[in-house]
Design goal:
The chain has 118 residues and is an all-alpha fold. The longest helix has 31 residues. The radius of gyration is 15 Å and the shape is elongated. The mean pLDDT is 85.
Length: 118
Amino acid sequence: MLRFLQAIIIGSLIPFIAILPPIIHFFTGPIGPFIGGLIAGTMTKSDPLKAMLLSLGITISVFLYFFIAIVVFGESLSLVPEDFSLGGILITSILFIYILGLSLLGAIIGGYNSQKNK
């Protein structure tokens, strides 16, 4: 269980690390959830069910990190618009599905490769 939680934390921090480097973040940022899922799936030698749980944990953790960042820095950076309406909900939903899908794909591939190498 502890290994599973460690994999979720590491897998959810990788998308943020992928965004940080200047210039290359245009390439590494979009595939960050996939890389995070791949590493988490490899760490836990996940089967498809564990991969689904990992990707859900990674996605929820990423959104929790974004929420904390918005609460801490949102006022000074004006990240949160005055009217968070249907457009904001739509963008948030698309990002949720995107991160969930890529981290799931990465976790399945990572788990398959780690089980194949036994």
